[in-house]
Design brief:
The chain is built from 10 helices and no strands. With about 210 residues, it is mostly helical.
């Protein structure tokens, strides 16, 4: 992956990444042509190849860019949300879930879904490099919840068989599945409903 440091080049790179991420989410990686990315970003082919070696290089860069943008946005939304019981680690899990719900709500309906989930479906069986990077993305998502789940488990109310790592993975699975179904069904209320059920399950699992 090429490293870019000049301000104008960084701006061009950001425009390309933003355009590509939107198109990958809406159309899929395989069905998005390079010409569409260039037209959407309003950059020349020469400007593109100054930033990226090829379309595959762009795909990996989009994943990195998306994860960083996602983290920043969720952190910002969290700061806007109340924290009912600051001393309760589970409330921090719930606030992150609320931030995810709000992030999805701000999108245009259910269009696009989750680019990580979309690219996983399209690429995991046919490109080992993308499969590994996408697996890392899911791990990063789970790690957002893990410290709070571990802290809650240490309070001694969780059952013996409760595994915080597995719970963190379960949370991501519910989120991704709900986003995918919401997109397919065109039902913006599906994610809030599933997150409400998820919260109840976590309360029972962690003895809250």
């Amino acid at each position: 992956m090429k490293v870019v440091t000049q301000p104008r080049a960084l701006e061009t790179r950001a425009k390309i990444l933003q355009a590509a991420a939107r198109l990958f989410a809406l159309k899929g990686y395989h069905d998005t042509k390079l010409e569409e990315v260039l037209a959407s970003a309003q950059v020349s082919k020469g400007a593109f190849f100054h930033q990226f070696r090829d379309r595959e290089d762009l795909g990996f860069a989009v994943l990195d860019w998306h994860m960083e943008q996602r983290r920043q946005l969720l952190d910002a939304i969290e700061q806007e949300l109340p924290l009912a019981k600051p001393a309760d680690p589970l409330q921090r899990v719930f606030r992150r879930l609320d931030a995810i719900q709000e992030m999805v709500r701000r999108r245009e309906g259910c269009k696009g879904g989750c680019i990580i989930g979309n690219m996983s479906t399209a690429l995991s069986d046919c490109h080992d490099g993308f499969r590994k990077r996408l697996a890392e993305c899911f791990d990063e998502m789970a790690k957002e919840f893990l410290p709070h789940l571990e802290a809650k488990a240490r309070q001694g109310r969780a059952g013996r068989r409760t595994n915080p790592s597995e719970l963190a993975r379960y949370i991501v699975t519910v989120i991704e599945g709900a986003i995918m179904q919401a997109r397919t069904l065109g039902d913006a209320e599906l994610l809030p409903q599933q997150l409400a059920y998820l919260k109840e399950h976590l309360k029972k699992s962690l003895g809250s």
